[in-house]
Design a protein that fits this description.
The complex is a heterodimer of chains A (about 1100) and B (about 525). Chain A is mainly β and about 1100 residues long. Helices cover about 10% and strands about 45% of the residues of chain A. In chain B, about 50% of the residues are buried. The chains are: A mainly beta (about 1100), B mainly alpha (about 525).
Chain lengths: ~1100, ~525
Amino acid sequence: MQNPITCQWNFTHPPFAKLLRIMRFLIVIQLAFCLQLSANGYSQKVTLRLKDVSLETALTAIKQQTGYVFFYNYNLVREAGPVSVELKNANMEEAVRQTLKGLPIDFVIEKKTVVLSRRTAPPANYAQDPPPPITISGTVINGETRQPLQGATVAVKGTGAVTTTNESGAFEISAEPNQMIVVSYVGFQEYTFKATAGKPISIELKIKPSSLNDMVVIGYGSARKRDITGAVASVKGDDLKNVTAADASSLLQGKAAGVVVQNSGGAPGQAPAVVIRGSGTFGNDQPLYVIDGMIASSMASINPADIASIDVLKDASAAAIYGSRAANGVVLVTTKSGASGDVKISFGAKYGSQSPAHKLKFLNARQYADWNNQAHDNDGTPRGPLNDSQFNPNINTDWQSLSLGRAPLADYNMSLSGGGQYARFYLSGEYFDQKGIVVDSRYKRYALRANSSFTKGKFRLIEALAVSRSINNPNTYFGRERGELPIMPVYDSTKLGGFAGLEPAAAGVNRIINWYGRALLDDNLYTTDQAFGNLGLEFEIIKGLKYKMNLGLDYSVYHSYDYSPAFFMSTSQEASQDQSTLNESFTRSLTTLVEHTLNYSRSFGDHRIELLAGYTAQKSNARSVGATADTYASPLLRVVDAASNRLANGNLQEAALQSILGRLSYSYQSKYLVTATIRRDGSSKFLYPTNTYGNYPSFSLGWRPTEESFFPKNDIVNDLKLRASYGTLGSQNIDNYITTSTLNINTGYYFAGGVQNGVGLTNFSNPDIKWESSRTKDIGADIGLLNNRILVTADYFDRRSYDILASIPIPSYGGAGSSLTKNAASVSNKGFELSVTYNHQPASAGGFKYAITGVFTTIKNKVTALGDGVSPIIGGYYTQESQPATKTDVGQPIGSYWGYQVLGVYQTADEVQKDGRTDARPGDFRFSKTPGWLGSPFPKFDYGITFSASYRRFDVNMFWQGVSDNKLWDAKRAWQYTFDYGSGKVTDVLNAWTPQHPNTGLARASFIDPANNKRPSSYYVEDGSYLRLKNLSIGYNLPASLATRLKISTARLYISAQNLLTLTRYKGYDPEVGRSYDPTVGLSSLNNLFNVGVDVQAYPQARMISAGIDLTF
Amino acid sequence: MKKIFSRPAIPGYLLSFVVLTGILILLAKCSSKNLDISNPNALPVTSFWKTSADAEKGLVACYGPLTSIQGWGRMLGAILTIQRGDDVNPFPSTGVQDVGTFLAIPTDGRVGEGWGELNAIVARTNAVLYYVPNISMDADEKQRILGEAFFLRALAHFYLVNMWGHIPLITKPIAEVSDLYIQQAPQQDVWAAIIADCKDAQSRLPATVAAKDIGRATWGAATALLGKAYLFTQDWANAATEFKKIIDKPALYQLVPNYQDNFLESGNNNAESIWELQYQSTPTGNWGTSGTANPIRGQAWEPDIAPVGFTSQGTTTVNQWVFDLFMEQKTIDNKIDPRAYATLLWNYPGAMVYQQTFQTALNGDNLNKVWIRKYLNYDRTSSLTPGSWGYANNNRRMIRLADVLLMYAEAENEAVGPDADAYAAINRVRARANVPAITPGLSKDNFRAAVRRERVLELSFEGDRVFDLLRWGIIDDVFTGHPEYRSNSGGKFVKGKHEYLPIPQNDIDANPKIKQNNGY
């Protein structure tokens, strides 16, 4: 038993007995969730044989045998040298005495607690008279927040004398004059001063400029940033707070390298698309969201003020622990928790006024009538009388001003946090209310959160629960109403519904609808009630080995309500409805998660090892029922029961995922780092049992040259870590049940006596479908320069996605569809990301302090294969006739623009003839002979720059965000410029070709458009680059004296401007087109990758000026 | 044992970790059954075709595609049939009217939709004919179900071969997708299959059905289609024999006194109708998409033929020669043929377009054009836009007695010459319109010409014209000789190409054994 390792590992019991005990414990927990642990398992007698181990180890061994708890100052025990002890069935007092033999430590045993203290009596060999000690007292505060710091360590250097600050930050310590006193606190710079007698001193600790010691959440645990070998981007809650957005995922825009956030216009409540390291699928490319350990579908319901940090797992190494769902990256959200100390109450209120950042110039009624007449004259069709003989000079409706205007936003937050040694809590509430700048649109959210943690002995219970209601009241016609004809009045009290309309023939157009009226008539309300949270139980089985059970819950009820009353505007298509209709449905969803994990973390000497093993099971179940109803006795009755014609629908969606996972991290002196991760997932979405399982391994290495002896020690490069990783990830973002062929019951037929049911096979399914996968290589570096004042993180990645589901054509003469989904395509995303932070610390407190962070991403997306027989994917439909803007084909980015080049406008019939065109005339576009690629919607660069500064009581925050070198498809040119059906026109159409005005790039006015001038072409393609001042805010902190008088701790007043300035050449409403709103899909069509940047009807972004106050008590 | 554990080879913590991990893995193994989730929303194929109720539902599914928007709800209803004739002159409308303006390409969505819907009927009838014989059920009911399925399969193949010319012939259910990779069948094989199916249907189907089942195939429908199949393959004698069987059943079928009753909702399922599609809509609009939960099965091709201003679609005018043909003859009391008013819309005193007068509804040049009247639903007085989608319940008569009479006259003339029976048939049609009998003693050729003229007067815009031109072998001459028939669009008929529609590109891509039709 002299094996040194055995001793080091403090192994005194036969392991078998211990294991049995642990296993028994674990099984009890797992199977019954019932916590029963008998203290009888402990003995009152101590048997111990240790040689040259640390005192801590020895005490721990006694503790484990006896269940006695030791209470001591950590430094006291750490400073003690190695001890050796040999005991056999010794009683407790004897055991402790033997262990402390020869050490300057006294002890007292009280009940089951042993309190150790520094021996105050001078040691026996005390010879010289020391200088008389002096007592130094003072308070320690956080230099940033000016809050007292509880638990800061105050130590006299070289003596071991140490104390900690109390809850008000105060301390008192004895030292000899001129001894150095060191004040330290995790995450803050140490503060050292010379002991001198005098008044109490006030010490401000500054936050460490380096974030290398920050803990980063990595999935099933956390790690020091310095030890991480994967690519992880972390954003702290404080960095998110300046921008106002309903959906917290918007706040990531421009903040994390490699994370591209595409806002899809600015509708209240509109979720942005979040793309991590490029799109590697043709389906759902959105990341996996994990909030406090529970899987979530989005961040829509979370109160942004509750977020403590967001960590984005980007490469295979970081994300592999989430295996089959991590191919699109993982966003880990950690919400706030209480800190021990006094109860802290925070209150925040913000009120803003929004207005359109940009407006278009539309023709007035007279100009429009002239244009319309011109088009009819060109077509040889009769003019609409309302533009000609019956033109009414009194009507000149400005639809844009009617539908687009100022709107308020209010956001109120309150939180209560605090706790003590054994329990902590964080409670918060939010009310968010944003009216849209487009008439009749609004989003509201009520959110409550209760987070708490409890420690009892070796147990720790962590709980997070969020309850929210969000109410979305969208205007589903917002893209259309500003396009109405200025010759149409708004109201007409003689018409059913009260809104005016015009007869198409009279107005000289094919159709004309008062969309503004329809928006006001319609009643749309989508409400989501959600309870989301988890409960974690942690038990430290033996030192370093922790078992954790995590139970997660996501329960929501979604109510969708669309009511449209009967109305009549005119006989135009869509301008009348003879029955009121209601479309209403409820979906109740429940997702549960059960996770058991074991975490083993241990340092021995220069070695540090972390092991993780776990089992998780997730189940989800969503049941919906709804009805469509029409034929109402009165428009005041708006429930299904009041309709005489009703039709019901509903379905059930179930899915399950079961996984085992493991991770090993090893580091030697924090110099050489290795992480290996594996996850094995089983999913119900694939054919059971053949294709159920997938394995996702990853491996990564890290090296810190700066820790090597050969590396020159200097302040220029003071930290350097090189990282490399490789791994495989999966994606199961596909619909349920796609692998089995089922019969369609909607194949009935109406015979004269009524409908009879039919059952037929309408689609073939592919039972062989398996996971989409991707392999990612990542090479990165984390660099600290100039004493960590500059921090740089750079990564190059190469991500190859394969087995992407694509539709391969099958013969439609089989009578059951024309395509079959198959794992066929491949996409490559390669890119470089860089994040640079510079921190300037002032020489004195209150001096000018600032930080600049720049985040830069470049990604090259390319389809590398579509699969045998798969035709290019056509998408981005932008006209009534469904003309497509995009094509996805091998060698090009997903959803690239495809069409003809406009080479000019024909001036003479000769030119037309020379091109062999029979459909065109002078004034029509001259197109290239064949269509070709017209550009990519993906920016070459995505970037964000954050500047924050403070001086005395003022602080300033400025955030710029931009994209560069992308193209947008300004589809509004199809109808607001020329060509299309009834729609108001922008003033650019005055530049259309006429024989008198031949020198122009714009084709002649025409409704018939025989030359198909509106076909996909370079005419629509515009530069989408922009640089936007997303946020500028200026804050003022009230002086402490005033705050105290007002009985508050801190108070900050601020004003903030959002989207204040946009530099762009784009001619539409807003260059942040994103995945354009598609009314047929619903408010968010995030899954449609094939219409990125196709601006069919983007909701304009608002410019907002807001003012607010943050108070803490 | 004791020895091993008193001298552990590996550190105990690691051992505990490993053992506990093992427990976790076991836990995972035990519950993997939970991953076997089947679709709770739909029936797997394997659990169907067990009972007589299954047989009935499987059969109804064969009718489903007929009235969908992709079927005769719209695409087959007008775009792929009516608009292809030389009687109409469609306006250009990219992606909508390309079939009628001779601009259709193999990726044309409308062509693919019609093709898909007819083939869906084939696939579903194949399933019925394969599975139902093995179901133990009432023998009469089984025969009727099989008979209807034979009829619908013949009908689908009839339209497929006439529209696309060269089609794969599939007569069994598809077990594996790979079974689909076959070649096109020779046309005579397809016709033989149609004739065989019609005979199988004719022998099994009842003459009449219960009121609630009106719309189902009957003996008369099968007999008429069989006659048509003989007619199209120029088996004149057999064609005449089959048509005669129908004519000889006056208790079953009679011409209705008022010609227009054949094109109004009020005349649905009248005595003249041998088989018609049953449209049925609810007052809220939708598309009637095939295979979706959708109550709408209204007639949705009205916008494709309604006059300009009453539709947002491309629509069409009527060619002058048709108008002239109507004006050439008068009734016995020297009036305009009443069929002209029911078929055409032009600027005559008292002419109406829906509830407006022609003169106020149209303006400019449009006042001088001739438009389609047949199948428009003037009776609608609601606020619904005339020409909006899917609201009309005006059934499409697929085969009516007048057509059978004219086909009989044609077949009899070709088989034995213009005998009394042939004269009687054509004159019966004319008499109903109050127009004089045709000149007696015509030569075979002249009688043929008279029948062809009569078919225009009687059957225009009912979707048969393009097939008539094709089977008479005159489609090329008619269109190439008269470019003005497509003056609205400037569309040009290419000989050897536009007789047939393009095979959808998807199917060419999917199965290289399928050959594209000439010229596409």
